[in-house]
Fold this sequence. Notes:
The chain has helices spanning about 5-20, 30-35, 40-50, 75, 80-90, 100-105, 110; strands at about 25, 65, 95, 95-100. It is mainly alpha-helical. The strands form two sheets. It has a two-stranded parallel sheet with strand order 1-2. A two-stranded antiparallel sheet has the order 3-4.
Amino acid sequence: MKRTDNQDLYEAIFDIVRLVPSGRVTTYGAIAAVIGLRSGARFVGHALKHCSGLTPPVPAHRVLNSSGLLTGRHHFGPGNEMQELLEKEGIKVIDNKVVTLDKYFWDPLKEL
DNA sequence: AAAATGACATGAG
DNA sequence: ACTCATGCCATTT
């Protein structure tokens, strides 16, 4: 198996997600753009799948799709764990989707 | 080796 | 404004 350059991409994504401050959220498109994949949104999602079980843990619950929808809540664990986490951070989540996304949106491109 | 799948995004109708 | 179709990259069957 190669697991070489692409692994580096995963690291980049993990790093960005770990940089997301509490109470803030980001989107796949933004991350994909940061790592250089303008339309590699799916790639970002796969990276987060791999993040499970790695160290340090990645707050993937802060990563949503362009709609602010908690697409990956099923991969987190039971029920609405992800949604509960976001609500605890102070983010209003309704029906698995984040409200006032513009207000909570954290753009890595802007920070980096 | 090829085809299908997947935690999405963007464009066109 | 909403829905359908296509593109993207890697992993898995």
